Amino acid sequence: MLTSILINLFERDLSKLEQEIAAYETPEGIWRVPAGISNSAGNLCLHLCGNLQHFVGAVLGQTGYVRNRELEFSARNVPTEDLLVLVSSTRRIILTVIAALTADDLEKTYPEKVFSGTMSTGHFLVHLSTHLNYHLGQINYHRRLTQ
């Protein structure tokens, strides 16, 4: 079933996000923005958590989360421990919401308009997983580049 696959992917990649953030030698390194790089690892971490907390937690899970996308990219020097707590809580919420979805839920049109049209909830969750993985790769590159 697709929910099992999604749970596996999100568990794997959010755990990897925690490992990447924890692997920085200094908290300052998380927030460096070298020439040619658009975002720090800290901002990408905030963005990933905000994105998932909104599209999965708030929209599908009715958690009440209110996203501040601008802050995801403008915040600076959030302590490493706070980022790790955020990733951990995001993982719990995402896995709980996805585990509660039925096969019928995944076939329904995602309840919020995204991009230029409509898509099924299952399709959008796969997109969110690939979005997470894309930025996870950027964070891994950023960490290796700045250390």
Automatic annotation (TrEMBL):
Coiled coil: none annotated. Transmembrane segments: none annotated. It holds the Pfam family DinB_2. Gene3D superfamilies: dinb family like domain. Residues 28-139 form the DinB-like domain. It comes from the Bacteria. This is DinB family protein. It comes from Chitinophaga hostae.
